[in-house]
Amino acid sequence: MSSNEDRQRAASTRTGWALSAPALLLLAFAASGPLLIVLVYSFLTPGDYGNVVWKFSLDGWRGILFSRDIFDGTLQLADAHLTIFWRSVKLSLLTTAITFAVGFPTAWFIATRPPTSRALWLFLITIPFWTNLLIRTVAINEVIRNEGIINTLLIWAGLITEPIRIIYTDTAVLIGMTYVYLPLMVLPLFAAIDRFDMKLLEAGYDLYASRWQVLRRVILPIVKPGIVAGSILVFVPSLGAYVTPRVLGGGKNMMIGNFIELQFGAGRNWPLGAALSMTLLIIVTIALLFYVRAANRGAPHG
Amino acid sequence: MNKDVAVEVRNAVKAFGQGDSTLRALDNVSVDIRKGEFFTLLGPSGCGKTTLLRLIAGFETPTSGEILLDGKDITQDPPNRRPVNTVFQSYALFPHLTVAQNIGFGLEMQGRPTAEVAAVTAKMLALVQMGAMAHRKTSQLSGGQQQRVALARALAPQPKVLLLDEPLSALDLKLRKEMQIELKRLQLETGITFIFVTHDQEEALTMSDRIGVMSAGKIQQIGTPRDIYTKPVNRFVASFIGETNFLSGTIDAGGVRLASGDVVEAGGIEGHAGKVTIAVRPEQVRLTRAGEPGALPATIASWVYFGTDTHCHLTLSDGTEVVARLQSQASGDTELEKGKAVALRFAPGAVQVLGD
């Protein structure tokens, strides 16, 4: 009897592996493979016209924080690199914070609509995904540039005489990323708020909590898994963003993504680019571990 | 102002919707609930009892009318400024907090010192016999345990009035009986005024000091369980609480003349004239031998044996049906026979004249 059951279980396990084999193979070759190549390249020497020379070197990793003086060859802290790192982290955190501040009321609004209109609102939220990211980013450029819609309207209304310079600043990048990543914050927040039992609001008010206390002590702790999921979905791609800082930040306001691209392109320093990529991966992993730990602490069971 | 009144509802109206689709959930309701009393709002679903409770809790504002707590107008106060707590039908326990944290929540929000919160929480845990579960998450509790936590959480801030919105409806029968006794014990121990909402007439009769029977947004009758059962003021109250025989007749000298021509004595005649409906409980109907003077002639249509008693369906001479609930006799109920001619008598004081 039990040997029959064992055989059945073994068979179903085999089927499971067989069915997931294509995905596993794809992951192994398409994700781990390139990652391994990047890791190896980061320890090699740059070739003269790009590519790498198969000679071990730590210059790629050293180049993340230090640059060699052109004249005397001494190592110096690379201020420009640190600025780029700092800008990336700062803009990504700000993007996450702003998308949360804007997205939370939006998600709450949608979750509290009657079920019939809720589907429509969710549909509207996903509309931006229908258009190519580059097109959307260029459209933002059209809105905020010096001769763009906002400045033209403000000048026409007589509120300003000179156009406000937004384009090619950190603010422009921030606006662009907030716009692009907002749905990624709203959707998990909506899922969490949708599961939230609205009776708990009454229970909170009934037990002498003010509106602010109900938000902080009842709503936020309970929808925390949604907040964490949304933050990860926004923070991770923000940190590696390439298109938005390229189009809205101009050449100067680079983020890590643009900096990496530069090394593989005009910079012709593939090991540095590879080391930077690995650094980005490490930062993201650390951030994820931090988030997941925060999520598990105090999250409701079951 | 009466010092013994805890909650006074004055001419409360609550209308939902606008224009033609307006629904009057409460239609000019006035009620005084006394201090330390176990008051039950009883009625079928949609009668407005929960709306009245939510008005007292502060979750709804009346369209017109006032609500007074200890003589103070609280009509416009939000729920968090009313010394009134609610036990919700679904319990609404906080899933992210432990049992103890749930119970301490109200005290914490009131800004009580940590030591006091801990002390009162411990006391409440003991009161509802949940001390062993203090650090469990609420999702790990059974229905009855969640019920106890919900009670302790609402009692912890020592409210002036505790509101209970059908709190026992989610429990199975055995647990419900236990919790009825438990609730009554808690009410006596704490001395807090309880306002209890239910659609279960038995629950209302066994637990309450007074009952307010509601229907169609109005309070039909307020009284002790005994008053409500023995002297229902109208057909709705009589039929909603317990089983009743309704007979129509006209007021005559010394009683009510039934359609069959017989005259029966009835209470509550004052103020009535002409055609009336009278009510008599099945257990107040006595069977006697046919032809007894003063008894109503009837024939046995059918009977159902229930063990402790037998429900005997009788037909009066004009065709009216009357149910008699007969206590089972040790010797057995051999004299019941379909089609047999008998006579019936109503116990003294058992017949009640109803209003509309």
The oligomeric status of these chains comes to heterodimer
Largest sheet of chain A: 2 strands, antiparallel
General form of chain B: elongated
Q: How large a portion of the residues of chain A is in β-strands, by DSSP E? A: under 5%
Measured on Cα atoms, how large is the radius of gyration of chain B? 25 Å
User: How large is the count of helical segments of chain B?
Assistant: 8
Most residues in contact, chain pair and counts: A-B, 22 and 27 residues
Quickly describe the structure:
The complex is a heterodimer of chains A (302) and B (356). With 302 residues, chain A is mainly alpha-helical.
Walkthrough of the structure:
The complex is a heterodimer of chains A (302) and B (356). Chain A is mainly alpha-helical. Chain A has helices spanning 2-41, 59-65, 79-111, 115-126, 133-144, 149-156, 170-195, 199-206, 211-239, 243-248, 256-264, 270-296; strands spanning 45-46, 52-53, 66-68, 75-77. In chain A, a hairpin with a 6-residue loop joins strand 3 (66-68) and strand 4. In chain A, helix 1 crosses helix 12 (270-296), helix 2 (59-65) crosses helix 12 and helix 3 (79-111) packs parallel to helix 7 (170-195). The longest helix of chain A is centred in the first third of the chain and has 40 residues, at 2-41. The mean pLDDT of chain A is 89. Chain B is an alpha+beta fold and 356 residues long. Chain B starts with a strand and ends with a strand. The A-B interface holds A 197, 199-200, 202-210, 213, 217-218, 221-222, 298-302 and B 57-59, 78-81, 84-86, 88, 90, 92-96, 105-106, 109-110, 137, 139-140, 153-154, 157.
